[in-house]
Amino acid sequence: MEYLRRSLLKTAALALSAGLAPLSQAQSANATGPIRLALIEGLSGPFANAGEAVYRNILWAVERVNARGGVKLPGGARLLQLDRYDSKGQNEEALSALRSAIDDGCRVVLQGNSSATAAVLLDAIQKNNDRDPSRRVLFLNYSAVDPALTNERCSYWHFRFDAHADMRMAALMEVIREDRAVKSVYLIGQDYSFGQAVLKEARRQLAEQRPDVHIVGDELHPLGRVKDFAPYAVKIKASGAQAVITGNWGNDLTLLIKAAREVGYDGRFFTYYGNALGAPAAIGDAGVGRVVAVADWLPNVPGAQSEAFYQSFRQRFPKPADDYVHMRMQLMIEALAQALEKAGSTEAGAVASKLEGSTVSLSGQSGTMRASDHQFQQGLTVGVMDKQGSPGVRFDVEGSGYGFKVIRQIPASKAEMATSCRMVRP
Question: Which residues does the UniProt record annotate as the domain Leucine-binding protein (predicted)?
């Protein structure tokens, strides 16, 4: 209850600052207590920085819901409570965390940093929900983008709020298709389901849209275990590739880009996650005009609403190194709150029925959860790295002095892809 007491105090303060009336004791301290959300993520180990970035984003989203009074249910308003479960970046630890979360009363699981982990959690949640209907769990996925998770492995209990790998590749290909200076590329990725999916789709889309481009390198490396990427960087430079395509994230991306800079590689990087988590600072001036990233949203997206959204996040987390903000995670928690209220219940099946097909908006951004496969449909943004203060780059990343200028905005209608999902509903 100590968490609830602290959360209520923070909620009241946030509500007052926002001009909202604080919750009464009768509204907030109802018999059923807070709605517990389990964040199962690598909060220690090689990708702890990525896990902590997720935590800050979701915490902010939870605080925003609580500041306006929490989730309105028939029995009274209930706050959201975010519980941390450290998977240490290991699948077995994630499964153990899932068991603990369910035993602790969590009925919503949040995870995303690893498609391999998402797959094992999805299987375990499906089995749990089939075996024990009284303790059914929802799985909200914010970053695990292996296309299979909403195609052949789709589940009624799983909802993905990030664009999957093929959608992201198509967005990058919008830029590559027009960049006629690129005649050869090097493909490199992490050796697990997501990294493999990225390279497979890169080969397919290049053959379809840029058959003139030669693939001069194509390799996978161990996930989270390479400490020195110099040998890879040397091979990339020696190949003569004018560009690199990679889905690497976390330290695997930062170390790769840093090694490329140190060996003097001057080609372009087309990335899924090159816009933060240390990558811009690692590459420095060598990345200006060369590092391209795709995201659901970027801080320099034009518009007053977008700017206010980013500024409010920076007010909440003023430390420059903590400014990696994800719009999709905010939309995810807003969609969950909306579905809870429409269901009038916290029961997973009832909430799932309201979450699929739902539309949610925030700060000028919006998306719809496609009912057929539970893949969120939203616009995508492609940006290129430049110095802060350059045209289109008001905001930098993590205090690095470098930010991303928006060069392409792709509407949801164009980013959408067909699905092979055959949804089985309870």
Answer: 34-389
pLDDT given at position 269: 96
Q: Any idea what DSSP says for residue 236?
A: H
The domain covering 166-295+379-415 belongs, at the CATH homologous superfamily level, to Response regulator (3.40.50.2300)
Q: Does domain 2-163+305-377 have CATH number 3.30.870.10?
A: no
**303-328: pLDDT as tens digits:** 999 999 999 999 999 999 999 999 99
Sequence spans of domains, the chain? 2-163+305-377, 166-295+379-415
**369, β-bridge pairs:** 376
By CB atoms closer than 10 A (0-12, 13-18, 19+), residue 68 is middle
* Whether pLDDT at 11 is above 70: no
Q: What's the token pair of residue 354?
A: 């309201």
Order of strands, sheet of 359-362, starting from the edge strand that comes earlier in the sequence:
359-362, 365-369, 376-378
Length of the chain: 426
pTM confidence score: 0.90
**Same-fold call for 2-163+305-377 versus 166-295+379-415:** yes
Beta strands in 204-321 (DSSP E): 214-221, 243-246, 268-271, 291-295
